[in-house]
Each structure stands twice: as C-alpha cells, then as structure tokens.
Design goal:
Helix content: under 10%
Strand order of the largest sheet: 6-7-8-9-4-3-10
Number of strands: 10
Number of helices: 1
Oligomer: single chain
Largest sheet: 7 strands, mixed
CATH topology: Metal Binding Protein, Guanine Nucleotide Exchange Factor, Chain A
Shape: globular
Distance between the termini: 41 Å
Structural class: mainly beta
Order of helices and strands: EEEHEEEEEEE
CATH architecture: Beta Complex
Number of domains: 1
Length: 142
C-alpha cells in the first residue's frame, strides 16, 4: 500500500494484506511458537500456524475493526476487507493476544522457539520443524 508505514528496529508491527488494519508494540513479544492443532490448520489452510504473542496492553491496533469468529473461549481476528487472518485470543488468557507470524512486517525477526499440539501434528513432513515441543498447548491455561 502506498505510503504504508513499516516497523522500526525497536517497534514490532504488522497488519493485514490491504493495510486497513495495522498493529504495533514497542515492547518485544514474549511468545514465539508454532501450533499444530486441527483448529489452527483449518483457520489458516496451512499444515501449522506460527504465532507471535504479546500482552494485550502492549499491542495497539489502528484502522478498521477486527472481525472475529470462533467458539468460546477462542476467538480469531481477521480483516473484514481482505480476509487476512491476524489474531488468536483465548478468554482464559484475558491479558494475552497472539498475532499470526505472517502478519508481522519483519517476520524473519521472530523465529519460533517451541511448538504446541504435537499430538495433532500431521503424520508427514510438511516442513521440517526441529524445535522443542509439547503434546498439547504451549501456553498453560487455568
């Protein structure tokens, strides 16, 4: 998008394909991971989905409102104009929000360091991922 602002080295930013929704944080993310669960695969159309996690208070959105879908306690946010998947939120983690790695301006700055739901990982090597893993979730929930 012409005139689109990109993240500085100290800013962590991203947005949707059409640029109508942007987000940023000056606080570094505290979670970098991959999820293999069937719900993430269906939501993304990919063999797994990578996330960058922030405290909600640290991540700021501008532009159009996120559209959401999902079954409680999970809510997934996307751009209502271009359809880009953007966020994952879980009501059991009210102070957290996770953005999809592909929505980050400089995705190469956020290499995942763990993976979740190995128990649901596809039985073939879609891509080789050599990271520590968890049989279920990587973020404990109450």
């Amino acid at each position: 998008m012409a005139g689109e602002r990109r993240a500085t080295e100290t800013e962590h930013a991203g947005g949707c394909r059409c640029g109508r929704i942007r987000f940023s944080s000056t606080v570094a993310p505290d979670f970098l991971g991959i999820c293999h669960c069937g719900d993430c695969r269906r939501a993304s159309g990919a063999p797994f989905l990578a996330f960058v996690g922030f405290r909600r208070a640290d991540l700021h959105f501008v532009g159009a409102e996120l559209k959401t879908f999902g079954e409680a306690p999970v809510s997934r946010g996307f751009c209502g104009d271009c359809g880009s998947p953007l966020t994952y939120a879980d009501a059991r983690l009210p102070d957290r929000i996770f953005v999809v790695l592909g929505a980050m301006d400089r995705a190469e700055r956020y290499p995942p360091d763990q993976q979740a739901f190995l128990s649901e990982r596809l039985p073939f090597a879609a891509l080789t991922v050599d990271l520590p893993g968890h049989a279920r979730t990587s973020v404990p929930r109450p």
